[in-house]
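Q: Predict the assembly, please.
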Amino acid sequence: MTAPAPAAVAASPERFPHRDLLGIEGLTAEQIGYLLDKSDSYVAQNRQVDKRSALLRGRTLVNLFFESSTRTRTSFELAGKRLGADVINMSAEGSSIKKGETLIDTAMTLNAMHPDVLVVRHQESGAVSLLAQKVSCAVINAGDGSHEHPTQALLDAVTIRRRKGRLRGLVVAICGDILHSRVARSNIHLLNIMGARVRVIAPPTLLPTAASQLGVEVFHDMRKGLAGCDIVMMLRLQSERMQGSFVPSISEYFHFYGLDTEKLAYAKPDAMVMHPGPMNRGVEIDTEIADDISRSAIAEQVEMGVAVRMAVLDALSARLPNFAPAAH
Amino acid sequence: MNAPLAFINARLLDPASGMDVKGGSLLVVDGRIAAVGGDVRPAKGADVIDCGGHCLAPGLVDMRAFLGEPGFEEKETLATAGLSAAAGGVTTLVSQPQTDPVMDEPALIGFMAERARQTCAVNVVSMAAITKGLRGQEMTEMGLLAEAGAVAFTDGVRAVADAQVMRRALSYATGWNLLVVQHAEEPSLAKGGAMNSGEVASRLGLKGIPAAAEVIMVERDVRLAEMTGGRYHAACLSTGEAIAAMRRAKERGIKATCGVAAHHFALNENEIGEYRTFAKVTPPLRSESDRAAVVEGLASGVVDVIVSDHSPQDQESKRLPFPAAEFGIAGLQTLLPLTLELVHGGHIKLLDLLAKLTVNPARLLGLDAGTLAKGAPADLVVFDLDTPWKISEAGLRSKSKNTPFDGRPVQGKVLRTVVGGETVFAAA
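A: Predicted assembly structure:
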């Protein structure tokens, strides 16, 4: 027997009039709010013994990952299965992509198999939207180069909203490798659309050109940047960027930009710490903070990830190919 | 503490405030300037030093000096460099990172400071390397080096050749408002060169270093400075074209400054004569028109700083065929008299020149030095502006005596040098 699911927000093509989710930029506050509300209801569903529903029964979801990922791929896989879809995982390793097939050819081939949803991660910015132009199913961007990672920003927003009750007016500091981060870009867009105040904290070499024109306040001094913050979002720093090209060394980076208790003390006393994972303990974040459940929302972010991806699939389901209202 | 010290009957020269007062006094208490001016009376019990009407100015801040330690003690030590600096009126030496080991780790900056405190008569601060091992590839821990006391960043007499590396260094440095100092010479054009490109090099059969090597690097770097907002300083320019590029950069509001070495306004390429290796220096001595342009750059204010570019070289490094000999001039003791030649020649006003040896480098490096302001450290030089004398190699206190100025008649002599209220040099 299935426990009654919480009153779900019905999928509405009017409230989310998109075939794909390629990025946060371009969404409205209402559309984002709709996805966040839906996510909340899926959080409740995911805490039940039976986490399944039949919304996507018979549908095929393909996880197409050109760049390796464990967390995001698993999260989409769970989300798809819990909604009743068949889920196929494809990675670049061992596929024809490695044999030199172009992205567009891969897209055409897959499209001929009539998938309903393609979840795509690619190392090049813009690759996911190029692929979306060539297929007739829904496409979800699971991260493209340094461009966007919309479901990460949505899950961060759900996490914040559940802890703080709102997004509007909050001061959010995003710290670390902004230059290469799709997580940062998606979060900057989402938080700006939802009325939060966004700061970025980074050494100048890890900031994009004209960063301030993205609607953020720029800080190089972490203590100043953290002063009075409600939310501290740490970003992962890739090791190949720490050897002197962008940052001189791990020790210098941690000294000036690693989050430790001393620096966190500049933020508000109830400031929440977030990290998209996987963490480099001792590089961008001190273990003591990462493991402090009163400060850190890192585990919660992962939980929200599944709910948000279910919510996105749900919202897109209204426009899936050959859509007919499912007979539940 | 020590008894107060009073300098009386002095022509007080303070470029920082524009003060030029005859018959003035300066009072030192606990190593710092307690009072200065035309109407200051020596405190009771003060030790009185009568300056005899001579000039009293802030001690010189030499922004570019290679000091031998660690690793090149056969050429120079902090002790011998300190003696030479004191005799030259230099009270703060800015050490260059071209040492062995290279100054690219925070702990080494502390080591230098401690070693200098123990053995050097004058103040020593260090510039640290821009790139690890001066290899021009990966930037050093600039933030930690600055916290350890590095006052600026340079790869010494190596240019940072890779534009992306230089761009990132300038950009990264803005996080701490640090100064990046370049040896402005495009290395691929300068490679293997021994002297200025031109007629003299052609006659001597020596491979030349074209003026364009300097101009190209300055023009590239100021664009990188503009793009990043970084603070850029060309260590010592030698060509009129590079100085013109610097003037244009300043007019556009780019944070770019430059220095020149005394030998570049005191000598031209003809000094090389019959392969005199003491006149082999980097950047090389240039044409007479370039030399005149350096003087003009000083007069117009485009050139901010005068340095000794002190590069001690032992005999084994200089007694070689010209192409094989090392670059460098030992310049600490000739810095002030050569600079004063420009005053006596009527080119530039005394205070304007002194600014380039005191307050300008101090401000660029953020040093508490280079001024006679009340409360500043009592780092002072007393000099006779007019007395004629001849530079002699034998009079150099540096461990290496590689000077092309031996026998040159000059005007203006250091009488006394004071560091933190202590006399470290007094003329016999």
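The interface with chain A takes residues 131-132, 137-144, 168, 171-172, 174-176, 228 of chain B (CB under 8 Å). Chain B has a mean pLDDT of 97.
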